[in-house]
Amino acid sequence: MSENDVVKRTFRALVESADRKFARVRDVPAYGRLPNQHYFHKVFKAYMRLWKYQQENRSKLVGAGLNRWEIGEIASRIGQLYFGQYMRTSEARFLIEAYVFYEAILSRNYFDGSAGSRGFGKKDIGVRFKELRFYARFLLVSLILNRTETVQLLAERFKSLVDNCKANFRDTNFKEWRLVVQEIARFMKVDTAFMNVRPLRYSTLFDSHPASLQYVTRFHAKRVLKFQDALLTSYHHNEVKFAELTLDTFRMLQCLEWEPSGSFYQKRPVEPKENGVFIEHSGASAASGVIDLNLAADMTDPSLPPNPRKAVIYRPSVTHLIAVMATICEELPLDSIMLVYLSASGKVDHSNTSQVYNSGGSQKSSKNKVPLQDQNKFQPESRINNKGESSGYYDQYLWFGPRGNGGLNNLYPGDIIPFTRRPLFLVLHGAERGETAALLLSPMRPAFKNPADADLTQNGSQFTFFLTAPLAAFSQLVGFSSSDTEAEVYSNAESLLSAAFSEWEVILCTTTSLDLVWAQVISDPFLRRLILRAVLYFFCPPEDSEQHLPVCLPLLPNSVSADSEVVRSAVQRLAKHLSVSDLFHLVET
Which parts of the sequence are annotated with region: Disordered (predicted)? Predict the structure, then answer.
């Protein structure tokens, strides 16, 4: 047996071994602690060994018939592994590594059968499917990283590839891939409507207000809860999405992460160990034209705390959603808080709704969990009988599935109550089992100047938009996009809003009437930012109607209520700056 044959057989054995290990972790749920976490280390180790072997024996493998797409497939698997680790841990370094591998595959043309290349043969259809999957995965990573130019380039090439495949493989149905092309085009149309809006991630430059830092630092409560876990899910008919990431969960996912300070790309050579952990490395030359595992762009900022873990669940059944909540709840430390974001249509009992507003309303859930609801959602507070027990928690619900299927797809407020025995699931005011809940709930109806903008399937949730990009949401509410105004005008509007948030933050952190529920979480920057942005939304709906008002329980202090002068004057300044004061019927003070 020749030396080349030995190298080829060893390579194939390494590929088969790595693929078997990959198959065991590919579909592991992206939530909860993993009893077989060590197996992920084995997979990383297997692919590192494989990658190193093909680099050291590249010429012999090529001589033995190794195709470039096979190298691309290995790199794509490694990128897929890194992305999977990001979804499980929310650690930015894994997302960045996935991007580096995918970008290298694209720039080195490992899948050389892309649109515009040499002719196709019938034997190439399997390779073309691998290339299609590569583009779809790279698009998702680029979307989350806000690499707009890369997304546009990939979308164009992806569409060309699908068209080329349809033309060359007429006996194969590419309907699903055409739908993916339509998905990304639709997603890009919505996501790029506010191109000059700053990142949704928490930026210490924009979102940290120096005037309030001393008060936040000295803020005391009976206990302070740590925000470590979040559950995000959305279920609407025909909602904007790409792959298994809907527009609303996409916005919330980014809103709950740190934005690296300074340049978006802080390049620093790093080396992945066998278990996927990184260490410093002196760097290496990329002149060989292959992806070097020792060279990676690291955008992470070591000065920032870790991102909270986020379980993003796509269109779950009610039983699956409850099971995920139970898993995360069971594993959450007692001093921690979990945020739960639920976006779905549903049935609202209007008689109960008035009781919510009479008892005080706004929106937010804290303690160990912050449930957020979207348009046409249930309101949490039902009737309280003379024994202090709640009733009516099964009169209203959210739909997590097709309508008309009985209660099988309905999520009721009462379904959440059992989790409040732990200090983390605090959803329903008046029906907790051990912890008082704090709630942020969206209004039953959004408010827009242009009725066409109210279509959730086209623009996502207005409430979610306010929580993640308040100025862009305000602009949408009054009927224009950021492109309608000069950059300087929009930048000044951002400054006005930032000044208002800074002022409100000082008030919240110095007031003596802040409910303990909020006091326990206000030291967390992510949750504090959500509270401040909710305050803006409490005031903004122009219509004087309960249906357009959000709900917050417990009540925030009167000093930051929609009727307070500090909130009214801030919105007045913003509306005047954007020449939309007439929409709010504001009185000059």
Answer: 353-389
Q: What is the residue-wise DSSP string for 183-234?
A: HHHHHHHHHTTTTTSPPSSB-TTTT--HHHHHHHHT---S---EEEEEEEEE
184-to-98, 167, 177 alpha-carbon distances in Å: 19, 21, 11
Which pTM does this prediction carry? Answer: 0.83
Classify residue 211 as exposed, middle or buried by CB count within 10 Å of its CB (0-12, 13-18, 19+).
exposed
pLDDT of residue 386: 42
CA dist., res. 36 & res. 33, Å (int):
9
Q: Do residues 48 and 293 lie in contact, with contact meaning Cβ atoms separated by under 8 Å? A: yes
- Round to whole Å and give the CA distance between 536 and 499: 13
User: Which helix or strand (DSSP H or E) is residue 47 part of?
Assistant: helix 37-56
Residue 109, sorted as left (phi over 0), alpha (psi -120 to 50) or beta, turns out to be left
Closest by Cα among 101, 112, 104, 9 to 48: 101
pLDDT in tens, 421-473: 554 434 343 445 555 666 777 777 777 776 666 666 678 888 889 999 999 88
- The token pair at 358 is 């009479």
E strands, 236-326, in order: 241-242, 245-246, 270-272, 278-280, 309-314
The amino acid at 181: V
Tokens describing residue 300: 């992470």
Alpha-carbon distance of 243 to 80, in angstroms, equals 14
User: Would you say the C-alpha torsion 448, 505, 231, 538 has a positive or negative sign?
Assistant: negative
Cβ contact 108:291 at 8 Å: yes
Q: Residue 499's closest CA among 400, 573, 585?
A: 573
**pLDDT value at residue 142:** 95
pLDDT digits (tens, 9 = 90+) for 516-559: 888 888 888 999 999 899 888 877 655 556 677 777 878 889 99
Place of tokens 């806000």: 146
Question: pLDDT, tens digit, for every residue of 190-207?
Answer: 876 665 567 899 988 888
